[in-house]
Amino acid sequence: MNQRKVRVRFAPSPTGALHIGGVRTALYNYLFAKQNGGEMILRIEDTDSQRFVPGAEDYIIESLTWLGIKFDEGVSFGGSYGPYRQSERREIYKDYVDQLLRENKAYVAFDTPEELDKKRQEISNFQYDASTRMLMRNSLTLSEEEVNTLIKEGNQYVVRIKIEPNEDVTVNDLIRGEVVINSSVLDDKVLYKSADQLPTYHLANIVDDHLMEVSHVIRGEEWLPSAPLHVLLYRNLGWEETMPEFAHLPLLLKPEGNGKLSKRDGDRLGFPVFPLEWKDPKTGEISSGYRESGYFPEAVVNFLALLGWNPGDDQEIMDMDELIRKFSLAHCSRSGAKFDYEKGKWFNHQYILRKENKEVAGLFMPVLEEHGIKAEASYVEKVVGMMKERVSFVKELWDQTSFFFVAPESYDEKTVKKRWKENSAEQLAELIEVLRTREPFDIEGTETEVKAWIEEKGYHLGNIMNATRLALVGEGKGPHIFDITEALGKEESIRRIQRAIEVLK
Ligand code: GLU
Prior knowledge:
The protein is of the alpha/beta class. Glutamic acid binds next to α6 and β10.
């Protein structure tokens, strides 16, 4: 049906930090656009001046840039369909408001908030629609003269769409199929407000999708209830032929229980719901972000891609290029996707494993520096290679590897009690002599030689290994003993064992 060039848009309202669900919407739009050789637009929907939050627009751009979601046009990216900020398009919308009024598909209404409240009290389940509009103060009930006078006198008014009742409106959704709604349940939504001379979301959204030649509207499920109104608007504006196709994405659900994932779930369960850290400009409250929490952008993209879509098989690890190849709206689910935060960590772990040790070491360097450590890059790389399988985040490496960089200053009491035996000091003193002559100081050769010595002496292998670990690490953790000695080198290994003997004997 739709043979047009694929053009999609991500159209956030700058009302605060971009929620992770919004990030997923942007990602799916991007995957769809790139797969189809299409274009992706960033449009800022800032017609609700009440809810405008400074900094939100920059935050959105920085977030998506961090994640590798690229735009072809839009705010800060340029393009020939601009301006892309709705607040800069006032003049454009006014023409279409006038067109709808002229063609009797919309009307002017003067009802004040007080009058509306009064009606709500008089009529139960009041809705401004075909059944009530003739009881209200609007251009359908007032004479043209009265209307003109009221406007001239500076009375505030709104323009409402005139919904014809009792008509089935069909929304063809690429994920949900045909959704049919009877127009009688819809209200005469406000399209324009004289107070700020701005259209509301509904009108601006339709006009811009049309003028920007948007072919597909891919957005969150929360917008599905607005879709019938949007279909009617396309029709009333005479744009039915070029109406975009719709795809409403499933909700992101709480990790447990029912309902939509909220910021409170994140606070409660200790995970970010925002891509980047966000400081609320009004309250000063800081919310954590995926970036600052140590996530790789590739891991976040991979994780989000699978929240509401699957490739049709069991494959889980996919980079952006592969996602672009495999994505399809037909494989998006209709039911909500549970937000499994542990799975997010798992993805980050998988990406650490897949990254070159050199890259992970580069990311770990600043963490080491924070701890006052200056280490050789090749040494850090070696340690990272040994230990990265134990962590989900680069910053967790410090806890796992600090003993590679600083000798233990004290020894864990519990481990000492359990692992340091009466004859440990004596035996380790002998071990030092074995190590001293060992050449090369490699992993396997050293291990073989030490074990042969233990056997020859009839010592207890476990006891010696445990005491040595305590001496090298300061506690009972760490990788294979001879991996540690090899990394530390002969001199440092001997120094640590010697010190443990002095302190613990
Ligand atoms: N401005 C709306 C939002 O904040 C856009 C919805 C749409 O994509 O149509 O999500």
